[in-house]
Design brief:
The complex is a heterodimer.
Chain A: E1 5-7, E2 10-13, E3 19-24, E4 31-37, E5 43-50, E6 53-57, E7 65-68, E8 75-79, E9 88-95, E10 105-106, E11 110-114
Parallel strand pairs in A: 2-11
Antiparallel strand pairs in A: 1-3, 3-8, 4-5, 4-9, 5-6, 7-8, 9-10, 9-11
Chain B: E1 9-13, E2 18-23, E3 32-38, E4 45-50, E5 55-56, E6 61-64, E7 70-75, E8 84-91, E9 102-107
Parallel strand pairs in B: 1-9
Antiparallel strand pairs in B: 2-7, 3-4, 3-8, 5-6, 6-7, 8-9
Classes of the chains: A mainly beta, B mainly beta.
């Protein structure tokens, strides 16, 4: 079964540093998402991306965050200047359509630890 | 997105059926009922969805009340691998919004 692949599985970074989290979506997916989950808390929506642009973003997704699909296969989330509170699991997800008739496929996540 | 209410936790014995309830009294006519689960240290995983009729797939069954104000996810024979947090989510358009879900533990 096709998978969404996320790398790295765990990243430790110093506060103020930039990090890039990478995702390889399923090849025929067109809609892409980033979610995060702070330890012990709910899975929270960050951003959705379609046709090479952001279609929706949450309040969490401020100017420190950006997404891009640089080469038509990878989908990346960049955090420009990390804060301690950015420590969380970050999940990439995709779907073939934006329709509610289909589910999302999530990756296994990247655990980001900001020290 | 309309709100759902689920018990915080449930317990089951291995190889017994599990019924996970979800209340969604403010559901609108165009909301689909989606279920996801999240195994420990994994991303969420799609389980099943439905609109009005009961649905079955290889993972589970979804029973939807006639008034659509509640639904039940049914795992026919729980295994240890089914221990996870189960999320009931209403979707009309756009993104998935996760609640706290029900943490299911399965005893051998």
């Amino acid at each position: 079964e096709p998978e969404v692949t996320q790398t790295p599985s765990h990243q430790v970074t110093q506060m103020g540093q930039e990090v890039i989290l990478r995702c390889v979506p399923i090849s025929n997916h067109l809609y892409f998402y980033w979610y995060r989950q702070i330890l012990g808390q709910k899975v929270e929506f960050l951003v959705s991306f379609y046709n090479n642009e952001i279609s929706e973003k949450s309040e969490i997704f401020d100017d420190q965050f950006s997404v891009e699909r640089p080469d038509g296969s990878n989908f990346t989330l960049k955090i420009r200047s990390t804060k301690l509170e950015d420590s969380a699991m970050y999940f990439c997800a995709g779907s073939g359509t934006g329709s509610v008739l289909y589910g999302y496929t999530f990756g296994s996540g990247t655990r980001l630890t900001v020290v | 997105d309309a709100k759902t209410t689920q018990p915080n936790s449930m317990e089951s014995n291995e190889e017994e059926p599990v019924h996970l309830p979800c209340n969604h009294s403010t559901i609108s006519g165009t909301d689909y009922i989606h279920w996801y689960r999240q195994l420990p240290s994994q991303g969420p995983e799609y389980v099943i969805h439905g609109l009005t009729s009961n649905v079955n797939n290889r993972m589970a069954s979804l029973a939807i009340a006639e008034d659509r104000k509640s639904s039940t996810l049914i795992l026919h024979r729980a295994t240890l691998r089914d221990a996870a947090v189960y999320y009931c989510i209403l979707r009309d358009v756009g993104k998935l919004i996760f609640g706290q879900g029900t943490e299911l533990s399965v005893k051998p």
